[in-house]
Write a structure and sequence with these properties.
Chain lengths: 429, 391
């Protein structure tokens, strides 16, 4: 949506600078670079070895928002990658074919290590096997077992800790030439926990009416530092402190959610959203909500890197390796479907939402397989209506604005109708 | 009793294959009060432990080509492979009502999430997501896996209402060692005399092993081998291919037949890997859990669902199969939307390219109807291989 002036807050400007500094660090040629995935990433550990953290999902998102991902995906498909697989992978592989240029205009260096944190998504394993073919660099796997029974077991945690000790840490030492210092790790984890407290305050601020922020479209930005290369840094602490002040000010003034077009004039619908956003038409998608006065008060996507607002997890510097294991085990896509249902149903109740919207992503079996069952189960538990839309992450071919808009409009009508009747659940759209 | 002919044996297997009510397994269960049946999905579970608990392991591979999926489509979006929806269809239509528990191996996110759907829909049933390590060090992945196996054993003990003794598992390990021996003999026989053991027959024979107790399945394979060995059949001028990518959702039987009719003898494949997953005999004395764990870590098949830590070793399993079976080429057949098969394929292809081994790729769903394009594609492939080798 060109032409609409974007309104940016102070914290957003700070974040923008943080991200660009990280890209400079990755591309400056003075640092060892690791590639690793967002969910359950081990940023604090990488910091112990002075390794810069490059996250391929974030690159794919950046390319999608700059409308570059479509060509990259086509490029990868031309090179033999199936139309049916995750478009993050293809955007990444296509980016390499197109010169591997970072958002700061400099070429990405080849990674010194691929830290294959196999957490909550099968595709991760193949993605880095594919990258390894290109980069031929050391690759270290961290297998995070799936918490299928809802609660991770002792055996799972021990397994992760053992992998960290026996494989991951030695591999990072070797690549970086830096010896592992557990006290350094503790210090970073202490900083993580400090930022996490303010971050959770932010997530819960949407319980206010009107909600001062949007926790899906806006949430993507707010979660950025904690989910990426800044957890464990002073910058992250400062960012969340600033964000908290801004949000508090909005609450004091009774403002509705902040959007790129300014404050929402009115809050008409409060939603919980399951699934990642579409990135290629992110602004258009958000605008549809803005127009209708719909704000997202909680979303599963703000739990994708790690979950802080379900069982009260915070990084624990007294148990450094164990706490990292718990973080990995806890990420949203590593949770069983009944747990995901429980989380979202609780969000609907606790955030006083009108219902659930599922944005089902064609690319992503980890999120999408089972969402229709989740939807019906959540409707049954909460008595609130749900709706289902289908898009993709970074493939512009799978975003049909007219379809999405239609679905949303009928969903909002359904909520209106339900309010008028004051009755129980309607069927899904 | 007179020995059965190949035709009779195959008709028996076909009967089991067609029967989506799993009558044979129901009868097994009904024969003795208290018996239990445990369903499992691809690609591997240690059936030895289920067997040792006195239970019947039952392979569940979706609804096949002919089952109409009425409810299942309401559970899955169009861009998800077909096996979970037809499996849900089997369950919600009552065809699995006699199954006491289900195992969902860690093969991909679809099967993984199906374990959650089972927990939501069938709360009263035993459900286990069967996780296996992606770290193959004995002191790391091995410790994790042995503990997982112990938990699994305890779960079955609870269901059975009794302890499962080490000796019982060791006895079952022997039963399955014997079963694998005959599975491998059937595969060897087919590779040596593919015209005597058409792949559709071999496939049906292995499918029978998904429903029958292992002892019966072993006898069936022995019977088949002796009947097929004794029977003369015309040898065709087919090329020899390895079929790969078919380890989870099954192609229609017609697809397998079409490949051979069009000129490709399948001399190896990755169907029903559970039968051949462990590449060596498992030690049948000592601590059975440790022995099963070691067999998995050190001597198990390679598929797309398993991490290969060494890039140089990646693809070797396939290439070894090509060499061992003297195959002329490879057919990559992947279920539509199958992450493991489709994401792995480019890596396998690059290795074949380097060795100049010919291949083709195709996609299918378990209910694919149109075989003509597949016949044409594999027919052209067979012709080009023949042309190649004669030039
Ligand atoms: S989008 Fe889904 S499938 Fe793709 S990498 Fe992320 S979690 Fe995995
Ligand atoms: S066919 Fe492929 S994607 Fe589908 S369940 Fe099987 S392994 Fe998973």
């Amino acid at each position: 949506m060109s032409g609409r002036e974007v309104v940016k807050s102070n914290s957003q400007l700070v974040q923008k600078e943080m991200i660009s500094r990280n890209y400079d660090r990755i591309t400056d040629g003075n640092h060892k670079v690791s590639s690793t995935f967002v969910p359950g990433n081990l940023n604090e550990l990488l910091m112990c070895f002075d390794i810069a953290n490059n996250l391929p999902e974030i690159n794919a998102i950046q390319n999608a928002m700059r409308k570059k991902s479509g060509d990259m995906i086509t490029e990868a498909e031309r090179a033999g990658h199936s139309e049916d697989v995750c478009t993050y992978v293809k955007a990444d592989i296509g980016m390499m074919a197109k010169g591997n240029i970072a958002p700061n205009g400099k070429p990405f260096p080849n990674p010194d290590i691929l830290l294959l944190s196999y957490t909550g998504c099968f595709t991760f394993m193949k993605w880095f096997e594919l990258l390894r073919e290109q980069y031929k660099c050391p690759t270290v796997m961290l297998h995070v077992p799936y918490a299928a029974d809802g609660t991770p077991t002792r055996n799972m945690r021990d397994y992760i800790v053992r992998q960290l000790k026996e494989d991951v840490i030695p591999a990072l030492e070797k690549v970086s030439g830096v010896r592992f210092d557990i006290d350094r790790l503790r210090e970073y984890l202490r900083k993580s926990a400090a930022a996490e407290d303010d971050m959770v305050w932010m997530l819960e601020s949407t319980k206010h009416r009107p909600s001062p922020i949007d926790c899906y479209f806006g949430g993507v930005y707010y979660m950025g530092p904690i989910f990426t290369a800044f957890r464990g840094t002073d910058e992250a602490i400062e960012y969340y402190r600033l964000l908290r002040l801004e949000i508090q000010e909005r609450i004091d003034k009774g403002l509705c959610a902040q959007t790129p077009e300014g404050d929402m004039p009115e809050e008409r619908y409060r939603l919980v959203v399951e699934g990642p956003p579409n990135w290629t038409s992110f602004r258009d998608f958000w605008h549809m909500f803005y127009e209708s006065g719909a704000v997202v008060v909680a979303s599963s996507y703000t739990k994708v890197g790690g979950i802080y607002d379900y069982e009260g997890f915070r990084h624990d510097p007294d148990h450094p390796l164990e706490t990292m294991a718990d973080y990995c085990l806890g990420v949203y896509t590593n949770r069983s479907l009944p747990t995901r249902v429980d989380m979202l149903a609780r969000n609907i109740r606790e955030y006083d939402a009108d219902g659930l919207l599922i944005n089902s992503i064609k690319s992503c079996n980890s999120f999408s397989a089972g969402q229709l069952v989740m939807m019906r189960e959540i409707e049954r538990i909460t008595g609130k209506p749900a709706a289902f839309i289908e898009t993709d992450l970074v493939d512009p071919r799978y975003f049909s604005a007219a379809n999405v808009k239609n679905r949303l409009e009928s969903y909002f009508q359904m909520i209106d109708q339900k309010r008028r009747l004051g009755g129980s659940s309607a069927a899904g759209v | 009793m007179e020995a059965r002919t190949v035709k009779e044996i195959v008709a028996f297997c076909q009967g089991l294959f067609d029967d989506l009510d799993f009558t044979r397994a129901r009868e097994w269960k009904a024969a003795v009060p208290g018996r239990k049946v445990i369903g499992y999905m691809p690609v591997y579970v240690p059936r030895e432990i289920i067997h040792a608990a006195g239970m019947l392991p039952l392979g569940i591979l979706g609804g096949g080509a002919d089952m109409e999926v009425i409810h299942g489509d309401a559970y899955y979006q169009s861009y998800i492979c077909r096996i979970p929806r037809s499996t849900v269809e089997l369950a919600v239509t009552g065809r699995l009502d006699f199954v006491d528990g289900m195992l969902f191996p860690s093969i991909c996110d679809v099967i993984r999430n199906l374990s959650g759907i089972w927990r939501i829909l069938f709360k009263e049933k035993y459900v286990r997501y069967f996780d296996a390590p992606q770290n193959f060090r004995e002191d790391v992945g091995g410790v994790f896996y042995s503990n997982e196996l112990r938990e699994f054993r305890e779960g079955l003990e609870k269901l059975a209402g009794r302890r499962i003794a080490d000796a019982e598992i060791n006895a079952s390990i022997e039963v399955y060692n014997e079963n694998r021996l005959w599975v491998n003999r059937v595969y060897d026989f087919r590779a040596d005399f593919p015209w005597k053991a058409p792949s559709a027959e071999v496939y049906l024979l292995m499918r029978a092993g998904m429903v029958l107790p292992p002892e019966e399945h072993t006898l069936l394979m022995r019977e088949y081998l002796s009947a097929a060995g004794a029977q003369d059949r015309p040898m065709r001028d087919n090329c020899r291919v390895v079929l790969t990518g078919v380890f989870c959702e099954q192609p229609p039987l017609n697809l397998i037949k079409s490949l051979e009719i069009s000129g490709c003898y399948i001399v190896d494949d990755d169907f029903l890997l559970v039968c051949r997953w462990l590449l060596e005999d498992v030690q049948a004395d000592g601590d059975p859990i440790e022995n099963l764990s070691r067999a998995f870590l050190l001597h198990s098949a390679q598929t797309a669902a398993k991490y290969e830590a060494d890039m140089e070793v990646k693809g070797r399993y396939l290439i070894d199969a090509i060499r061992r079976r003297r195959a002329d080429g490879v057919i990559f057949a992947a279920p539509s939307f199958c992450d493991p098969a489709l994401l792995d394929q480019p890596m396998m292809i690059s290795r074949l390219d380097a060795l100049k081994i010919p291949y083709i790729t195709m996609q299918y769903a378990e209910n694919s109807g149109q075989m003509q394009p597949i016949r044409e594609q594999s027919g052209t492939f067979a012709d080009s291989i023949k042309l190649w080798s004669s030039s």
